[in-house]
Specification:
The protein has 178 residues and is α+β, with helices and mostly antiparallel strands. 38% of the residues lie in helices and 21% in strands. It has a single domain, classed as Endonuclease I-creI, CATH 3.10.28.
């Protein structure tokens, strides 16, 4: 187990090397009689560095007490996907004084998305024993919150270095269940 770092150092590293994003996933299950499509949003936070800094990545993971460390292709990274773990990062980063305005705005949008997801994410997604089918991931989502998540995702895209014209599934009518 690596020695944890100070919160100030971790937040500085997260600001410089971190990436806040919102994952939108579309799953199709055609084998269930008809054309059923499931969607969900998930917060994603990643810190990426060169592979020789893997020890530092391990220390960051021990300090924030969440995330999965992977390495390959000359880089080491820690990824956080869980809304519960995202709250730990929010608690840590709320105290941080951002130097980069764009990163501060990106974080505030991501924080809002995490709050919307946790507010609306009250049912289990997996099927229960003895019941057929899946519980809809959108069943609990307020329509206004769902639209806000799509807008947040588009706004976060403006702060990224890569400039894609659009995401893979957001152009189609099937992509937006509202």
């Amino acid at each position: 187990m690596a020695k944890p770092l100070s919160n100030a150092l971790v937040t500085k590293i997260m600001e410089e090397n971190g990436c806040f994003s919102l994952i939108y996933r579309r799953d199709r299950h055609l084998d269930r009689g008809g054309r059923r499509i499931y969607f969900y949003f998930r917060p994603h936070f990643a810190v990426t560095m060169k592979d020789d800094k893997k020890d530092l990545i391990d220390q960051i993971t021990d300090t924030i007490d969440c995330g999965k460390v992977t390495s390959g292709k000359g880089q080491a990274r820690v990824d956080v996907f869980s809304p519960t773990d995202a709250k730990k990062i929010i608690k840590l980063m709320d105290k941080h004084n951002f130097e980069n305005r764009a990163k501060k705005k990106e974080f505030s949008l991501w924080k809002e998305a995490v709050e919307v997801i946790t507010r609306n994410n009250k049912k289990k997604v997996n099927a229960e024993k003895g019941k057929r089918g899946f519980i809809s991931t959108w069943a609990n989502f307020n329509e206004r919150d769902l639209k806000r998540l799509f807008r947040i995702r588009e706004e976060i895209k403006t702060y990224k270095k890569w400039k894609k014209t659009d995401y893979k599934w957001t152009n189609t009518l099937m992509a937006r269940p509202y």
